[in-house]
Amino acid sequence: MAADPRHGPAPDLWDPLVRTSHWGIALVVLANAVFTKGGSSVHVAIGWIGIALLVLRLAWGLVGAPEARFGAFPPQPRAAIAHLRSLWSGKPGHYRSHNPAGAMMVYALWISLAVVIATGLAMTTDSPATIADREAIVTSGDWSTLAGTSDAGDDDAQDEHARKWVKEVHEMAANLMLALAVLHVAGVMVESRALRRNLVMPMIFGRRK
Length: 209
Prior knowledge:
The chain has helices at residues 16-35, 41-63, 77-88, 100-123, 128-140, 144-155, 157-195, 201-205. It is mostly helical. The protein has one domain (16-127, 157-205): Fumarate Reductase Cytochrome B subunit. It is elongated, with a radius of gyration of 21 Å.
């Protein structure tokens, strides 16, 4: 029987694109969650960076390095549960890519980010430059140029309800993503201790000692 290519040691775990997209998305999420105001030009611009990074990573999952491809870490709930049990017993397995539990977390984070992006796009179709111009108009006190579009939107109760619903989904997905990120960090710490190996270093430098 041929050996499973998903198992075994992997000295070159993460290539530069995986590392760049990983930390780039982390910075995007942190920046828009903590340091920017929702709907602002900076918030939207950072969101577009997040879109580019997510699309790039998903494309790399199809044509990238073996460890980065989706086939190396398929979503397997039962295998994830089994891995958590092995982790609890102190005998976790070794994987060339994400372990099954980590893989489930990766897909959950990507889905949450995709929902945040989709709802964010639904709330604004303007470019960051257009939003910046609108902010400048409002700051100057001249609301006359915005009155027409504002009145048209407020007159439609259904559109207003839809906007509120989209905003709620956007905020819920963003909060879920932050909670998953915290759980992800905790899981990496636990797994590093169980394996007696720093799992963060390969995501920074790309090579496991």
